[in-house]
Specification:
Elements: H1 2-7, E1 9-14, E2 17-21, H2 28-33, E3 43-47, H3 59-75, E4 80-86, E5 93-100, H4 104-113, E6 118-123, E7 130-132, E8 145-147
Parallel strand pairs: 7-8
Antiparallel strand pairs: 1-2, 1-4, 3-5, 3-6, 4-5, 6-7
Length: about 200
């Protein structure tokens, strides 16, 4: 999964421009297009609610998950812009949101809420970083990847749901960019470790 995230091409639609994002590279055009407000948390996060743990879902499931993510962002008054990530050859893509001003702990909790394998999260002015929510492979020392472990016992750190999401309802989604063309009834195979 790490390799898929690192090779992915990400773009955000900000101020009418499609701005490229690459893990390990700064995003000066993005920082210039939307300077941080005084006193604001100076970070960017790219998150999606599609395809939990890299298991492809049908369009309706992904749309429901995305609506819940958008409601959470709106309920907190966060600035967010449409974003997409996918393969360089255009064979797959997944839509999400570029969010300004999330603390790392909040971004992690949001990723866990949507059962994601990874997100992009980085300080403004710095190279884009990948946060993975899996065990670090032995010997893995990739410089632009932060491995964030789940709490012991498999529990999730909950993000309070917005008013539009009933208490206790967990919406599933993932930011891993699906690597296979659709098969069968519009579903792609799951990556190892995915609970289908």
């Amino acid at each position: 999964l790490r390799e898929a995230y690192l090779a992915a091409v990400y773009r955000a639609q900000v101020e009418g421009a499609s701005l490229p994002l690459r893990v390990g590279e700064p995003a000066p055009a993005l920082d210039a297009a939307r300077p941080a407000a005084p006193g604001a948390v100076a970070t960017w996060t790219l998150v999606t609610a599609w395809n939990p743990q890299s298991c492809a879902q049908d369009a309706g499931v992904n749309a429901t998950a995305d609506a819940a993510l958008q409601a959470w962002l709106r309920a907190r008054g966060l600035q967010a812009w449409p974003a997409v990530g996918g393969s360089a050859d255009g064979q797959w893509e997944e839509h999400g949101w570029l969010v300004a001003g999330l603390e790392a702990a909040t971004a992690d909790a949001l990723a866990r809420r949507h059962d994601q394998a990874g997100i992009l999260h980085w300080p403004r002015g710095a190279p884009v970083r990948l946060r993975m929510y899996r065990e670090r492979p032995p010997g893995n020392r990739t410089g632009w990847v932060d491995w964030v472990h789940r709490p012991r016992g498999g529990g999730r750190r909950a993000v309070p749901p917005p008013n539009a999401i009933p208490a206790g309802r967990r919406v599933r989604g993932s930011s891993i960019r699906q690597m296979w063309p659709a098969t069968g009834a519009g579903r792609a195979p799951c990556v190892a470790g995915c609970a289908a």
